[in-house]
Amino acid sequence: KRTAFQVMEAYKMIRTNLLFSLATTDSRVVVFSSAEPSAGKSTLSANLAIVMAQTGARVLLVDADMRKPSQHRNFKKTRSLGLSKVLGGLNTLDECLHHNVKPNVDLITSGPTPPNPSELLGSARMKSLLEELENRYDYIFVDMPPLCVVADALVVAPNAAGVVLVARHNQTMYDEFSEALEKVETSGAKLLGVVLTDMKVGTGNYGRYGRYGRYERRR
């Protein structure tokens, strides 16, 4: 079992690698996704937002997984006002912001689940929202549904700096992950890196960033 110190150091390592990846991009919007559910993308994006904010940066975490949201529970906030309300024109951005859920970290929850998440996320309103957010924050982390389940992440990723793919050790299958990589490539989005979660002590570095050759095919 890993200690809290080891986990924190792993997140700091991922933060450093992400900063290097973003150094050559104009955008500071990062999409977090995975091949399949329960790979740990929501936990990773939330904790990485907190660690990034420890540098003094202003960070916004956006729960764009409107089909299976979790960030409102992670930060113990209501999702009655959130992203779906902003994109639907029902509420303003400021009405839906949760300020300082952690030091220097703001949150937009998913909002109520709409009947058309992909259409809302692919709309001109979403693109305009991201542009406005980039004027307010140093980094915007967008938690999105799995790539092999729905297309939501693929309609947002081209408007972002790129995608961080999350996979879980001994869960994510080779074929699923290969499909997710192909979807990122065909969408025209940039792959910023890969994080492998749930590594056990003695099997390698937790949160291996930018590496995906270690995944094994499972039958």
State the helix count: 9
Summarize the main sheet.
Answer: 8 strands, mixed
Rg, nearest Å: 16 Å
The main sheet orders its strands as: 3-4-2-5-1-6-7-8
Q: Mean pLDDT, rounded to whole units?
A: 89
- Gap between N and C termini: 27 Å
Element-level helix/strand string? HEHEHHHEEHHEHEHEE
Shape: globular
How many strands in all?
8
| Poorly predicted parts | 203-219
What fraction strand?
Answer: 15-25%
Q: What share of the residues lie within helices?
A: 25-40%
Task: Supply the helix-strand structural class.
Answer: alpha/beta
Explain what the structure shows:
The protein is α/β, with parallel strands linked by helices. The chain is built from nine helices and eight strands. Strands 3-4-2-5-1-6-7-8 form an eight-stranded mixed beta sheet, with helices on both faces. Helix 1 packs across helix 2. The protein is globular. The two termini are 27 Å apart. The C terminus is likely disordered.
TL;DR?
This protein is α/β, with parallel strands linked by helices. The chain is 37% helix and 19% strand.
Q: Which key terms come to mind for this protein?
A:
219 residues, alpha/beta, eight-stranded mixed sheet, 8 strands, 19% strand, globular, disordered C terminus
Describe the protein's topology.
Elements lengths: L3 H19 L6 E6 L6 H13 L5 E5 L7 H4 L8 H5 L5 H4 E6 L2 E4 L8 H5 L2 H13 L2 E5 L8 H5 L5 E7 L5 H14 L3 E7 L10 E2 L10
Parallel strand pairs: 1-5, 1-6, 2-4, 2-5, 6-7
Antiparallel strand pairs: 3-4, 7-8
Helix pairs in contact: 1-2
